[in-house]
Design a protein that fits this description.
Layout (H helix, E strand, L loop, with lengths): L1 H17 L24 H24 L5 E4 L7 H14 L3 H13 L3 E2 L7 E2 L10 H11 L1
Parallel strand pairs: 1-2
Antiparallel strand pairs: 1-3
Helix pairs in contact: 1-2, 1-4, 2-3, 3-4
């Protein structure tokens, strides 16, 4: 059941990565200059959302390419950006997205980061195998998900 859920989530997130960025009403600044003060006041938010979208799209493409199915843990080196940067980007998108389904997809993307761990190596390892500190990889992943 968990495996099927992970496959479905990865598929949905991959589709979200290909979707259009959030609309102006979803946290991005409108492209027209403001009546007073010009557009400069809105550019930092606009740029941060654009950067977050780019990070999310790269991350979800990689997740899709790996074919994650919820039964294995992957080396952190498989991530296209540092884990913290990906999490921060997804949190930006959670904050600016009004659609609950899309917001939920971004939150799931944050949880999927737990399946990327250091010292796994080039080949994914089953969650049932022993990981660091006399714990299974499943325990390591579950602990990280709970701490998010």
């Amino acid at each position: 059941m968990t495996r099927l859920l992970i496959v479905a989530i990865v598929s949905l997130l991959a589709l979200s990565a290909q979707a259009e960025p959030p609309a102006a009403g979803e946290g991005q600044a409108a492209s027209a200059p403001a009546a007073e003060g010009g557009q400069a006041a809105t550019e930092p938010m606009d740029k941060s959302v654009q950067d977050a979208i780019a990070v999310m799209q790269t991350y979800m493409t990689q997740v899709s390419t790996l074919g994650m199915d919820g039964t294995s843990v992957y080396d952190i080196s498989n991530l296209p950006e540092p884990k913290a940067k990906i999490k921060d980007a997804l949190l930006v998108l959670v904050d600016v997205t009004e659609d609950e389904k899309t917001r939920s997809d971004y939150q799931t993307g944050i949880m999927l980061l737990a399946f990327f761990q250091p010292d796994v190596g080039a080949t994914p390892i089953s969650l049932e195998e022993m990981g660091p500190g006399d714990k299974t990889w499943r325990q390591v992943v579950e602990k990280e998900i709970q701490s998010q």
